[in-house]
Design the sequence.
């Protein structure tokens, strides 16, 4: 069995479910740390800063520094920086994406912007959507932090950022560039951050359509863990299988 | 030239532009009234009651009774009534659609509904979209008053109801039944209301993609007037042409 030199790891459904820790996942990360193997959490959650995510993981007993968290907000800010450093942007989204963009040198404003970025915003209003549409129609480059159609909660599946993004894409008939998993954009940046060679890095996650596809598209080996969305039964419906699939990360402990 | 016995007429772009009357359109309707030819205004605007629409038209000097206005909210309420009279419905939308549904005997509630209806709501919130998604995922039949992707305003093109509807359709992966133009559902009901034979009724409007297509799909002759969205230039791009096209309804006065 191949020994991987680095791990990219999903959060929700892989490390925890909402507010509930997955204990075997914590033990898995502790083992990585003890063996000195680099790991980076890669998340489509655009609403929180890396420090806030690290704090949540630490509160579960999962050893995490701020630098071990890579969010789609950071990936979005980097992507925009490559296109036009210090540009102007109209943002729909919460603190995480706003912080990432301003930290990277972007100016957030309402009109005549170079970019429109849509990230999850549970305080969405018609006026925010209107401003996003007007800027896109005026030529702003349109980016969405992630295309997740649904957000799993204790109430059920609520609208995800991909569905909110569709207001702007349907109204303006302009497709955005999506940054988060399953796109390669976030994965290529995450590989740079972790610094291990692609062929020696494993992508770990619970959701085929985002985590596993992201790994495959980026040319990584993949490990699907059945603690979240994609059950064994659902996995049978996919043509291309992940490199590995386990019921729990406990099964992976002797392969680290 | 054929003499039509009834006219179905669009509003925005045909009778007025926002708050501005199109004087030739007023004269055209006055002529219809004087000659005793039935006419019915057919609108995708779900936000106002027929009485409110009639009042606006009267304020422009366009002779209109409440009964001469047929909104997509009325068409939606009739459609739901045919599927399940006195059912329960979760509604995103303004006064017009709420009034039409309660008047028709429906009970508006938040959970466990038979139907979800989405109409234009400029006070949209994430919570409203969440409730719509949860009801659709729980099996509620999903209906949208109209699929207009954009709303023309003095600020530019803002998100139309079709784009707001897409949040629910993308998130739940469930397509709604659309009621308004260009769908036949509203047109068939409008024909019943006006009461003139299909072959003797003319559909008049400014927008090919809604008004003219609606007429064509319903098997009516169509008259495109270039006072709104579809210019002469744009019209050249369509394969199937309307029965007639004029720059202004003034040109139609001697054909009534």
Sequence:
């Amino acid at each position: 069995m191949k020994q991987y030199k680095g791990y990219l790891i999903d959060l929700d459904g892989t490390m925890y479910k909402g507010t509930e820790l997955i204990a075997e996942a914590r033990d898995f990360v502790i083992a990585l740390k003890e063996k000195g193997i680099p790991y980076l959490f890669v998340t489509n959650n655009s609403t929180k800063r890396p420090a806030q995510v690290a704090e949540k993981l630490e509160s579960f007993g999962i050893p995490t520094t701020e630098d071990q968290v890579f969010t789609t907000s950071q990936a979005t800010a980097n992507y925009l920086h490559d296109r036009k450093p210090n540009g102007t942007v109209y943002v729909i989204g919460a603190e995480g994406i706003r912080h990432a963009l301003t930290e990277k040198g972007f100016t957030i404003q309402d009109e005549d912007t170079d970019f429109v970025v849509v990230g999850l915003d549970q305080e969405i209003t018609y006026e925010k959507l209107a401003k996003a549409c007007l800027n896109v129609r005026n030529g702003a480059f349109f980016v969405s932090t992630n295309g997740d159609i649904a957000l799993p909660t204790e109430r059920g599946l609520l609208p995800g950022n991909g569905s909110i993004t569709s207001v702007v894409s349907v109204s303006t008939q302009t497709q955005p560039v999506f940054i988060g998993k399953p796109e390669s954009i976030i994965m290529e940046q995450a590989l740079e951050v972790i610094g291990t060679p692609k062929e020696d890095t494993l992508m770990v996650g619970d959701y085929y359509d985002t985590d596993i596809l992201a790994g495959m598209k980026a040319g990584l080996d993949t490990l699907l863990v059945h603690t979240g969305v994609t059950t064994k039964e659902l996995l049978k419906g996919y043509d291309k299988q992940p490199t590995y699939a386990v019921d729990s990360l406990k099964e992976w402990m002797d392969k680290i």
